[in-house]
Structures are given as structure tokens and as C-alpha cells.
Amino acid sequence: MSKTVVITGTSSGIGLGLARAFLARGYNVVGNARSEERLWESKQALGNPANYIGVAGDIARPETAEQLFNAAIETFGAVDVLVNNAGFFLPKPFTDYTPAELDNLLETNLKGVVYASQVAARHMIGRQQGHIVNITAAVALQANQAVPAALPVLIKGGLNQMTRALALELAPHNIQVNAVAPGIIETPMHAPEIHGFLAGLQPSGRIGRIEDIAEAVLYLAGADFTTGVILPVDGGMSTGKW
Known about the structure:
Blueprint: E1 4-7, H1 13-24, E2 28-33, H2 36-45, E3 52-56, H3 62-76, E4 81-84, H4 99-127, E5 130-135, H5 150-170, E6 175-182, H6 195-199, H7 210-221, E7 230-233
């Protein structure tokens, strides 16, 4: 029987790549985006697979998480994996962040993870099995002067610690909780003309690919004896000063 994964933020970039990778592994995929239009576009980009469904809504609202899991369970029977991917990265000088930007970061990057993980944990405790994988950020493991991002680091760093704490809490229920911490990844968020500069921020000398993240997430989604791990996929950026 095919396993089912819920992925938040599948309309583009890493989320869309994760959906494609899980589909290639034979998973049923339940995706999320803010609008029906973006969900339709992402499904077409994936080749309109029969084992992909989408649920529109703001993941920062608890009812969206409930709707995601209800749809997954009604369609596919159960949820085996949650990937908390929805979020955005906003690097800028600390003194330039506005109250609205702080609110937006907290809504999507923090509340979205909490609400989806709460629904996932309740469901998975009932089944006594499951995997939760959070997408955080390598810069939250090792700050970089060239990437001023104190507020995203505050939130993503907190999610790294939540990952460890939740891993311990859910371990008795055979639920594994881990995180992937990407470095700079080639997505539509980064204009091609700055790729050279961005590549120079990582010891490997290149920008990461979405496939690099997908491979790490797929590993953690099936790793039954790995929990509480923050896995950097960043070309060595978080290793230290270089």
C-alpha cells in the first residue's frame, strides 16, 4: 500500500520539487498553497497525477491544517509523513524589519509549522507511527555576516530546537521528528544574475539544487531510527567560519 505525505507550500520552488520527488517514489501527495489557482498550476506542472490532491488555504490558520489532514485521510486512508515546507526567507539589516514583516514571518514560518505538526502528532499518535520533517535554514545553525537575517534566524533557530524537543516527546509513539536545514538553493526566489555571488557564500562553491533537499527529506521520511536530527544541506556553509 502506498504511503501518503502532506507537504505544505507546494506551489513552487522546494515545495514543488518535494512533491515531484515523493510522487516519483510512489507516495500519495497532499499539497497546500494559498489559492486554488496556484494549486492547479502546480498540479499541471507535476503532470496532473491521480495520486496528488491539493488543499487551498493559509497554513498559518489552524483550520487549514485540519482540512489538509482530513482530505488526506478521506482520500488515501492515513498520513505517514508531514513535511513542513511552507515559509519564506527575508534577509535584511535587523533595524530595517517592519512590524508587518515580523508578523508575516511569525504567521507562516512559525504558526504554520505548529498547527500542522499538532494535527500530524494527534493523527500519528493514534497510529503509533509517522515522520515529521521540518524545513529550517542552515544560517540558523551558523550565522553569516554576508547574510543579515536576524529575524528568520530567530524563528528557524527556534524550529530547530522544537524539532529536538518534539522528537523526544513523540519518540515513545514511534514518531520520528527531524529537520533539513538548507543553504542557498536555486529557486525562483534568487535572480540568476546573483547566482555567482550566492555560490561564493558556500564552501562547495555552488548553489544547492532542489534535488539536494529532496534527497535529504526522502531519507528522513523513511528513517525509522533517526530522530531529533537537524541535517544541514548547505555545501558546508554551517560548518564554521571559512
